[in-house]
Amino acid sequence: MRCGVFFAMLILTHDAFGEEPGRFKYEYPGYNDTPFYPATKFYPAATYRVHDPNQPQPPRVLPPNSDGSLGTPAPSDAVVLFDGTSLDAFEENDAVVENGVIVIGGDSLLTKQAFGSCQLHLEWRTPETLADRTGNMGNSGLFLMDQYELQIFDSYSCKIYADGSAGAIYAQTPPLVNVCRKPGEWQSFDVVFHAPVFQQGEVVSLPEITVLHNGVLIQDRTQIKGPTLHKTARPITPHAEKMPLHIQGHGCPVGIRNFWIRPLD
């Protein structure tokens, strides 16, 4: 998630989820001056504007118990992007490896290899230390084809606009449910992504994504309308068949581990 203007930090006066201390302790409400996605042949006009504060929050689902150990190992045909040791799969950046974990800095982590349709596994952890602003609490994102963002965010502690919460297709589609764990706890994304199809400079089909967050379905064959941009509604335009992945650098020390991908094309 790229943010240009930030609201002051708000400490809520009560915990709406009393059984989960600290949940939604902070708030980053959204905007009333952003555009709506207009209707196209692929989807109707949007009901809510981009980052609309009135868009309903995804319902809360408690994540499965976890002991924090590594999740799904890479199958034999996977491209292992990070195995706990080397950043060789990525372009030069300011991330560091600490105890088998990539700690993201200000630079985005861009793969040297380009990908299209894929199955992907990624484990991530938001920091326990409080960010300098609510819009940067565990703020990062997985960008498929370098432009379609699956949001990483501390949606346990911070109630952000729905299309910016963890597991959202950023600025477009909130997750079906909020299954975020507490800061400092390991979480997982399992993704099946189908790249868009273009013919003779025209869009034939939109990109489509299915996501499990901590083993729970949060995006179900969701169409991606176009590049995911802050406060912007931009329809898709043709681009290369394969493009790099990147993990967004947002100046927030999000941790990454067990990152692998299986190309499907």
Automatic annotation (TrEMBL):
Domain of life per record: Bacteria
Span list, region Disordered: 49-70
The name this protein goes by in its record: 3-keto-alpha-glucoside-1,2-lyase/3-keto-2-hydroxy-glucal hydratase domain-containing protein
Coiled coil: none
GO molecular function: hydrolase activity
Domain 3-keto-alpha-glucoside-1,2-lyase/3-keto-2-hydroxy-glucal hydratase: 78-262
Organism: Novipirellula artificiosorum
